[in-house]
Design a protein that fits this description.
The complex is a heterodimer of chains A (about 230) and B (about 775). With about 230 residues, chain A is mostly helical. Chain A contains seven helices and three strands; from the N terminus they run H-H-H-H-H-H-E-E-H-E. Chain A is about 30% helix and about 5% strand. The longest helix of chain A is centred in the N-terminal third of the chain and has 27 residues. In chain B, a hairpin with a 2-residue loop joins strand 4 and strand 5. The chains are: A mainly alpha (about 230), B alpha/beta (about 775).
């Protein structure tokens, strides 16, 4: 939409439209409230959610429900004095969106498979005084051979320079005004949305405003690529 | 759950209402615009294409995202039955190996000692004329080609047809000789046919995994995760790590048993003794499906030029086997192998328990062994004694190191004695090749010439004057490196190297040809479980780079062999596949058609009547097997051969002057000589340089701490490395471990070029060295 076109829209029109919109939304909320919350008590709602998780065998959905009792589920659980991750520092650890991040902190001798020692912090998250930060939560704690994909860095020097350019980072888009954002990245290995999008260790810019709404895929759909081998 | 769902929901909806109203209103206000949609596409504008991983022999299926003609992202292919969507750190970063700044884009010719860029045509002309001139002057056997298990199948096929069919010399070898040769001779001597009878699905059925000198957590990480997954789902599953060094694999195992290097031969025999002696052998299976043989003993180490050895197998009976095994009671063996009597008995009980399905896995520890063939035979002996083979979960499984060691080197047969079907010594095999290649049978020589070590020795002596090296880096990987580097640098030797980056091998080259890498061209790889995987060309190769196969075809045309390679750049992969498939057109080895490979995440041969074969040698699963159960049709008597093999010492045991035993190998981050992985930032930064692992006891005694500089010397050379103590793995006292990926710290200056006399595969795991602090 170009600027010129927009300028032709008169102010009263905007006012009327906004008024209409707000009325519409208000009515919707009241109606929804009436039907959805009136006769349901807390326990029943919980049961409903849990059973859903069991019935739905799509891995993504399963993963989403698995972590309902984790602290990352609660956005109030944030200590603003702790070091916060930003999107920039998040992507700095990844060769491209979806690449396994490198381990940014020193790790002790890696004789073991490390599953247990990594997961001590990264399975449920929590505050780590040593780094004055909350540990990010791994979206796939069932994989125990962490060093299969994640490695610490021993310096940042290169062997030879590279022409590799990182593809621009994905950003969600709402296709209609106010519609839920689409998921702009593959959720393979990242089926647990909340591990990155909620909780005290989540990157500020991509925290969800509503972590309690556990069924993410109900409103947010994954944008499929135009061509995926084997799928079309 | 202690949050209030109902209130959350209510608030959420209200919030949503307000925010959507704001967004709606905002959209109407001039100056606030929707962001450009192009920025918001995310992954929507990427093409995801399948390809097998370019690194190890597991053959994971990858999905590679292409944008604007460049690879930009990787994920595991969820449709691939090999890895089911999971990769390792190398796989995830693999595409970055295409884009380092020093990528070779132009052909180079050495002029006045310096490599200078020339047009590709000039370089190809020179290679062809030099090759022709050498043949004219010194005969056909003065030219040679040295390739790799990273050749695609069509490239290997072109090389074989060119060397054996067009030129008429058996001077064709591949680096798989350094990595899989003992596995091949093991299969051939026991079963008569190469490659595993089982497949990766065995992992999903087995109850016990015995890893023979195999650090799977680092070397075959995705398969190891599959084992861990199996274990997580079934608590009775056990992993036994039988090794010479404590590794991540040991820590992930239920039991780690450390043995003295080379005594694995005795341990395997002790397990056999225990199985037979306790009466737990499967005598019914033995009676129906096994015959007993013995081979030559005291067979040497191939250290001298012109070394020749041919094994001879004689039939024996079960009593002779029992008598032979009397030297290997657990009590006797335990005295020198380092594993307790109890542990040997425990291993035997796991193998012989009829309720347990057992999978043995091994790779370089068993193969890079001066008795590598024997070790392969002995593991099969154990499985044959208890009849645990060729059925789901019961599987002696030889793992592979390179993406197409099986597909190219072993199946196409790019080795001196091999043809795509059979061996050159067989008249029938030569006739078949001559017919398909449309050359006179007399063109294909009937005698094998040089295996790899012998070929480089011949280059040093001057029997070979011309060598064309493709997709491999022998000036990092040859044992006793100095001799072979000096040999290659001699005055009248002519070396052509096809590669993608400058390496120590391009340093000895007279001509360098730039190659297309991986999905910069179309091709196929064949992995450890007989799976052939096709990949399309996804991006353009840089500059003049072209596939290794096309380079050979161009030279062949210039030498007058154009009629044998009548294909075009567009169709040669498809045409070669249909020509090559003729060699294997039988129920024992038939290959899936081109179209099927293109549309599937790989297919396992024998591919018969539209179906792949998961387990060979059993009538239930294998269309080539006759009868109602096992049929080891590779041997004339339709039986598997149990061959007794004794324990013999390694050629260079430590002594007072050289008190340490040196083992070399890999790390998870680096692939072989690091020419690709070191150019990948995340991998190089994880392990930027070579090091030497020292046992903490030795370190304490010698006053060594982390990063102490140590001079390692063997009888052949010395290098200085930094010490690493308990960083990644722990060798036993008296042992050292050095990875070989670092081209500036060439550990192979120290290694010994002793090899298994049967397979001719060198032993990189045992040579005597001393250490000094510097």
């Amino acid at each position: 939409m170009s600027k010129n076109k927009l300028e032709k829209i008169s102010f009263p029109m905007i006012f009327i439209f906004s008024l209409l919109m707000m009325t519409f939304v208000y009515v919707q909320v009241e109606v929804f409230d009436h039907f959805s919350t009136k006769d349901l008590d807390k326990k029943e709602t919980q049961k409903e959610v849990k059973e859903w998780g069991k019935i739905d065998d799509i891995k993504a959905a399963k993963q989403m429900y698995q972590y309902l009792d984790r602290p990352m589920h609660d956005n109030n659980f944030i200590d603003k004095t702790a070091r916060q991750r930003t999107l920039e520092s998040f992507y700095e650890l990844r060769a491209y969106d979806g690449a396994p991040p490198v381990i940014p902190h020193p790790v002790e001798a890696s004789l073991t498979l490390t599953g247990d020692s990594c997961l001590a912090c990264h399975e449920n998250g929590g505050f780590v005084p040593k780094f004055n930060a909350y540990a990010p939560v791994v979206p796939h704690p069932e994989k125990k051979s962490c060093r299969q994909c994640h490695n610490p860095r021993d310096g940042k020097r290169l062997f030879k320079n590279t022409n590799w350019k990182k593809n621009s980072n994905p950003r969600g888009v709402n296709h209609l005004p106010g519609s839920p954002l689409t998921i702009p990245h593959s959720i393979q290995m990242r089926e647990n949305c909340l591990s990155c999008h909620s909780g005290p260790a989540a990157v500020l810019e991509i925290r969800t405003t509503h972590p309690e709404r556990t069924n993410c895929l109900q409103c947010h759909v994954e944008i499929k690529s135009k061509k995926i081998w084997g799928e079309n | 759950m202690d949050f209030d769902t109902t209130i959350g929901r209510r608030e959420f909806i209200k919030n949503l209402a307000i925010s959507s109203a704001i967004i709606a209103a905002k959209a109407m206000i001039p100056g606030v615009l929707f962001a450009n949609e192009a920025d918001f596409k995310g992954l929507g504008d990427l093409d995801w294409n399948k390809t097998p991983c370019r690194f190890c022999g597991v053959g994971c299926g990858l999905l590679v995202a292409i944008k604007d003609g460049k690879a930009v992202a990787v994920k595991g292919d969820p449709q691939s039955p090999v890895n089911k969507g999971l990769c390792c750190v190398k796989g995830y970063h693999s595409i970055q190996s295409l884009y380092a700044k020093d990528r070779l884009k132009s052909a180079q010719i050495r002029k006045n000692g310096k490599l200078v860029n020339v047009p590709l045509k000039e370089a190809l002309d020179l290679v062809a004329s030099k090759m022709q001139e050498t043949i004219k002057k010194h005969g056909k056997d003065s030219v040679s080609m040295y390739g790799s298990g990273q050749w695609t199948i069509p490239d290997g096929y072109i090389a074989s047809k060119f060397m054996k069919g067009a030129i008429g010399t058996n001077n064709l070898e591949a680096n798989a000789r350094l990595c899989m040769a003992s596995a091949v001779t093991g299969f051939i001597s026991t079963f008569g046919l190469d490659e595993p009878m089982g497949c990766y699905e065995d992992i999903d059925y087995a109850d016990v995994f015995v890893l023979w000198g195999n650090n799977m957590a680092e070397m075959h990480p995705v398969l190891f995760s599959r084992i861990l997954d199996r274990k997580a789902k079934n608590r009775k599953v056990k992993i036994i790590d039988l090794a010479t060094r404590t590794t991540r694999t040991s820590y992930a195992s239920d039991k780690s048993m450390l043995f003295v290097p080379q005594t694995d031969l005795a341990i395997a025999n002790a397990i056999c003794y225990e199985i037979l002696n306790s009466g737990k052998a499967n005598f019914d299976f033995l009676k129906k499906h096994v015959s007993y043989k013995k081979g030559k003993t005291n067979i040497g180490y191939g250290l001298e030029d012109g070394f020749k050895f041919k094994d001879k197998l004689e039939g024996i009976d079960l009593d002779a086997v029992k008598k032979f095994l009397e030297d290997y009671t657990p009590e006797k063996v335990s005295k020198y192998c380092g594993v307790s009597v109890k542990d040997i008995r425990y291993l035997a009980s796991l193998y012989s328990d009829p309720k347990l399905k057992v999978m043995s896995l091994w790779c370089m520890g068993v193969n890079q062994h001066t008795r590598g063939t024997w070790m392969n035979n002995l593991i099969y002996n154990i499985h044959l004694l208890v009849g645990k083979i060729s059925t789901p979960g019961n599987s002696p499984f030889s793992l592979t190191g390179q993406p197409s060691a099986c597909g190219t080197v072993r199946e196409v047969g790019t080795l001196t004695h091999k043809l795509p079907y059979g061996v050159v010594m067989s008249e029938k095999a030569r006739e078949k090749a001559a017919k398909i290649w449309q050359v006179p049978v007399s063109k294909i020589p009937s005698k094998p010439t040089h295996h790899t070590v012998s070929m480089f020795r011949a280059l040093d002596r001057g029997d070979i004057k011309f060598m064309w090296i493709q997709v491999t880096n022998p000036m990092v990987t040859m044992p006793k490196l100095k001799r072979y580097r000096d040999g290659a640098n001699k005055e009248d030797r002519f070396i052509v190297v096809s590669d993608i980056y400058p390496t120590p091998t391009t340093e000895i080259a007279d001509v360098v040809l730039p190659s297309a890498l991986w999905f910069e061209r179309e091709g196929m790889f064949g992995n450890s479980e007989r799976r052939t995987q096709h990949f399309n060309q996804l991006v353009q190769p840089p500059g003049q780079a072209m596939s290794d196969g096309l380079q050979i075809m161009e030279v062949a045309k210039r030498m007058g062999h154009g009629a044998m390679f009548p294909w075009t750049k567009e169709n040669y992969i498809e045409k070669i596949w249909s020509e090559y498939s003729q060699f294997h057109a039988n129920d024992k080895h038939s290959m899936a058609p081109y179209e099927v490979l293109k549309e599937n995440p790989g297919m396992r041969w024998p591919y018969v009547k539209g179906k792949e074969t998961r387990w060979r040698f059993h009538a239930k699963y294998d269309p080539a097997a006759k009868g109602d159960s096992y049929d080891f049709y590779g041997k004339p008597d339709h039986r598997a051969w149990l061959i007794i093999r004794p324990f013999e010492m390694a050629p260079e045991p430590p002594n007072k002057k050289y008190p340490f035993l040196l083992c070399t190998g890999r790390v998870i981050e680096h692939w072989h000589t690091g020419s690709m992985t070191r150019r990948i930032p995340a991998l190089h930064q994880a392990v930027p340089e070579g090091y030497v692992e020292v046992n903490p006891i030795d370190a304490k005694e010698l006053g060594i701490v982390n990063n102490t500089k140590l001079k390692l010397s063997s009888r052949r050379g010395s290098i200085v490395l930094k010490a690493l103590i308990d960083g990644r793995a722990r060798p036993q006292p008296g042992e050292l471990f050095v990875p070989f990926f670092d081209e500036s710290l060439l550990i192979n200056e120290l290694t010994l070029d002793a090899f298994c006399p049967i397979s001719k595969q060198p032993d990189y795991k045992k040579c005597a060295v001393k250490i000094e602090k510097v």
